[in-house]
Amino acid sequence: MDTPAEPLPCPAPAPLAARLCWRALTAADVPAVVEVEKTAHAHPWRARHFEDSLAAGYWMRLLALRPDAGADPPHWVHSPTTPEGHWLLGYLVAMPGVDEGHLLDVTVAPTHQRQGWGRWLLHALAHWGRAQRYAHLWLEVRRSNAPARALYQRCGWVEVGVRKNYYPDTAQRREDAIVMRLDMGEHCAPTTVRSNPTACP
Ligand SMILES: CC(C)(COP(=O)(O)OP(=O)(O)OC[C@H]1O[C@@H](n2cnc3c(N)ncnc32)[C@H](O)[C@@H]1OP(=O)(O)O)[C@@H](O)C(=O)NCCC(=O)NCCS
Description:
By secondary structure, this protein is an alpha+beta fold. It is about 25% helix and about 30% strand. It has a single domain (about 15-190), classed as Gcn5-related N-acetyltransferase (GNAT) (Aminopeptidase, 3-Layer(aba) Sandwich). The chain has helices spanning about 15, 30-40, 45-55, 115-130, 145-155; strands at about 20-25, 60-65, 85-95, 100-110, 135-140, 160-170, 175-185. Residues about 195-200 have low confidence and may be disordered. Bound molecules: coenzyme A.
């Protein structure tokens, strides 16, 4: 059975909004999500990480786009789809706490990157954090992950510390984590999702 869609937590341009599906990520989505992980991350989560997060009751949400045969570019043909056959745009995993939440994963499928979906997802996360009445959200990001660090800064997150050698890198080396915090008063400027995804490279 399809997982019910939820109201969109952030706006999107009219032609796209009608095709967007925002809903809980479920066990049935894990194969497609893992497919995206492998292409988007140098150190991807495995199925087990998503299954453990589901079992732990973490906040896991997925954003997908209903296909429009007349509008979608042919290069999307190899993009992962959800069990309903929607293009998987991206997803979030966040760990709820008592007074604050912790972002564990945010990913936009490579075919759909640089179109504003990363900002959209972080808007949705901040919306969730405010609804939980959190004072802050936290995350760690690899020092070398310049796109993600730029995205977070753009969305009001501030770098507040470093965890030395936090992440495994190669067999011989580890990588620092930059610790970032979002104060719930802060938020992105209005999102700029492109209204015509076919125009994207
Ligand atoms: C990080 C990530 C989520 C960004 O998603 P996205 O949809 O491409 O980002 P957006 O289009 O919303 O970009 C928003 C801002 O982020 C920054 N940004 C995003 N990608 C960038 C890149 N490749 N280089 C530099 N800045 C980048 C820019 O400031 C951008 O604003 P601009 O487009 O006005 O310049 C995406 O690159 C991704 O999924 N990466 C792999 C997974 C990952 O590293 N996740 C984070 C750690 S868990």
